[in-house]
Structures are given as structure tokens and as C-alpha cells.
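task queued by scheduler; priority normal; single chain, no ligands, no partner chains; default sampling; output format set to C-alpha cells
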Amino acid sequence: MKKRNSFIMRTGCTLLMLILTASLITSCKKAENDPLPENNQGTENAAAKEESTAASENSAAEGTVSEAAGKDNATDEKKTGGIDDIVGDWELAYTKGHSEYGTDDEPYDYVNMADDPYAATSELIISKKDGKFIADYNFNGYETDIRYLGVEFIKKDGPAYPECENKDWYFEFADPFSKEGTVKKYTLLDSGELVGISLHSEGEKGKEDYYYSLDTEVYLRKDSPEMKNREELRYFETVTVSSLDDLINNIDPNKKVILKKGTYDFTKLDKRRIDSDHIKHLLSQDEIEDGYRTYTLSDFSNFCIEAEEPGEVLICTEEAYDPVMFFRYANNLTLRGLVCGHEVEPGYCSGSVLGFSGSSGIKIDNCKLYGCGTYGLEIHDSEHFDVKDSEIYECTYGLLDIYSSSSLNFENCTFRDSKELSMICVDSGYEIVFDGCTFKNNRINPEYTSCHFVDLSEYSEVTFNSCCFDNNQYNLFSNRKVTTTNCTINDNQDSN
């Protein structure tokens, strides 16, 4: 009996629920067609708001899931894209080297720019075909000429070397020609540089037989903005200073030092103010064989001294027997926007304005070199000079003294108002070229009959292209043959 009553009750409840559901559906359909009664509108709005909020929360939750999935996909794409970013046309910008030998605590480091004399040049063109990376490679260096065309570039996991920034992957050539020697590994850094790594190690660190070398070739895209101003690639750091002490204390490889407006007098320089890391670059008389100079700046490379305001920085000395600055073993040095000269009464000076010995890759740009220096430039045992848009004037012996040097180019320079001896002295010099230069108001003392405007030793050569000679006085222009092309000569050769 209880079971029957229970069954009747369950059946009745089910029927009641069906009736209520049907009634609710009918009411909803009516609500869609009829306006809500005014007294129920607030309730319905509240319900709608709750329903909308719930929907928004669901949508936001779905969006979060979708966004998370999107981030995962983006990460995957970034990883893949990072690898695909190796595709393109690349050109070698510079090479860095680091070597360690035996028990020597001083490692050897160097940087060679691709634009430097005798430096290696290289191009690397990478494409992707059928899921494979293909490379055309050309490398020209000292006694080295390598060319690969259409060689597969194979991706491998891990860093190119233990300290490499990119820990995930690198590439190697599938070299069908040779497997000998050190294998180069190529990887892409966060900076966008493509680097080629050559690592070689022998023996145990700290032992006599230990040898370690790491060479890094740095490539940039051919169309990158950095490649349009290649000189700036040379400088890894730029500082601005306002004293001569700070200038010397910042002589470091691959560095540009900007001088603030003012006077920088070497007469007032005190070695005791130079720190232990940089004192090696400032040699005094007793530290070098030809020690007649108070100071010699020595042994550095890839360095620039530039005026913050061109023409407003004076570098000088009050020592009549000293050059204003003398550089020994300076490589890839740039001087820009400077005024250099002696603060000495004319006739009492026996030092040139700027002197160089054993140096290479020198650029003098937009500088003014004035007397009473004996010569504006003294260049000995050096090569590859580019002097541009500069002025040499009021020197007491002549303009240039060149000995055993080559590949010197002077472009759009003015040489004026100097006197006494031969203006351009060349002893064992060749490939010396003046382009678009002006020589005016220079006078050789007529008593020195053996002096010439251009004085050449045997096997020396000088070329003048599109140069102007105006009101210079001399007995004879040159003692040996020189080459002149499209030059204008309006000199007064009567020096009496």
C-alpha cells in the first residue's frame, strides 16, 4: 500500500513539473511579444543583468583560455620565427678574437673591422627551401678564399659555445669539401647580429701547453641602418670628458671619447693622475728609445677623439721641442673636429703638430693644425692615412714630413701660410695622393736653393688631382717627377 501511494505521489509530482514547465515556456513566449508590466520591469532587468554578467564571465573565461593558447602558439611561433630570422643577406661587419696562452695571465684580444686594411670580408646569404636552410657563403681573408654555393645549413640544438647568449640552437655547414680544422658555428643573438664562432682549445688551463682561442665573426643584415654608418660600429662605448686626465684614462679599444669645449694642455699633464690600467698608453722620455718627447701616446686601436663642438676644442703644448701629440703603434685612430698647435712664440719651436710612428688606419677629419710647429704632420713608418676637410697652416719648417710611409690620402684640405724649407718632404713614400686640395701663401726661403715645394727621394711618388696652387713661392716645384691632373697653378716663382 505504501509503495502504491509512493508511486502515485511521484507520478503526481512529475505531472505537476511538466505543467509548470509548459506554463513557463508559454509565459516566456508571451514575454517576447508583449511589453513587460511596469511593476515587473526592474525585476526582469536585474535578471537580464545577471544573465549578461554570467555570459560575460563565461566569455572572459573562454577568452583567457584562448589568450593563453594564443600565447603558447605565439611562443612556438617566436621560437620558430627566431630560427627563421636567420634567413636573409648578411655581411661581415667585424671580427673579435680572444686568445689565452700557457701560464700567461694577460689574454690577447683584438677587433678587426671589415673596412680595415687587410681585414677579412665575407657575405652569407641564407634561404629556406622545402623546410631546409640553404646558404651561399663567401669569405676572403689572409691567404684564405672560401666559397660555398647552395650548401645546406644544418640546425643543431644547444649553444654554439658554452658562454653563448643563445643557448637553444646554432647552425653548421654541411660541408661536402673538407672536415678538417675548426668547425664554424653560426647563431643569432637577441641584438639581431648573426655570429660565426670558431673555438679551439688544447691542454689544461694554467699549464704551459694550454691554448685557447675564440674568434667571433659578427654579421649584420646588408640593409640594416647600422651598415650605413660603418665607422660607428667600431666603437662599443662612447664617453664625454672635460679634462686631459680623463682623456688618457679612457684610452681603451673600440671607444670614442668626446671632448667638451675647452683647452687641453699637455704641458699640465701629470702621469700621477693616470690610473694603473691606462698608464701603459702614456710613455715618458725615459721609456722609449727616441725619448726627446715629453709624452708619447702608444699601443692602442679602434679609438676616436672627437670634439663635442667642432673647432671649439684646443689641444696644445707649451713645450717648444714637443709635438702637440705623438702617436706610436696607433691603429685605426680617428681625430675629428680638433684644433691642435703650439702655444709658443714663432721661431722657437722644433716639434711638429701631430706625429705618427708605426701606425695604420689613421683618420684626421675636420681638424686644424697650426704652427709654430715645424711641420703640420710628421708621418714615419706608417700607412693608410685619410686626412679630410682639414687645414694645416703657419708652420715654421714646412707642411708635411713623410718617411717610409704609404697609402696616404689628403682630400679637400687646405695647406697655407707656412714657410722656410721644403713644404712636402717625402722620403721612401708611395701612393701619396692629394685630391681637391688648396695650397696657398706658402713661401720657401730663397736662401735655401736646395729646397723644393715637393722634395722627393728616389722611388717616392706623389699625385695631385684637381688641386689649386695659389701664390706659393719657391725656386723649383719638385726635384723629381710628380703627377698632376686637372690642377690650377698660380704661383709666384720669383721668391726674391
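post-processing summary
- The helical segments are 2-33, 41-84, 244-248.
- Residues 159 and 166 are 6 Å apart (CA to CA).
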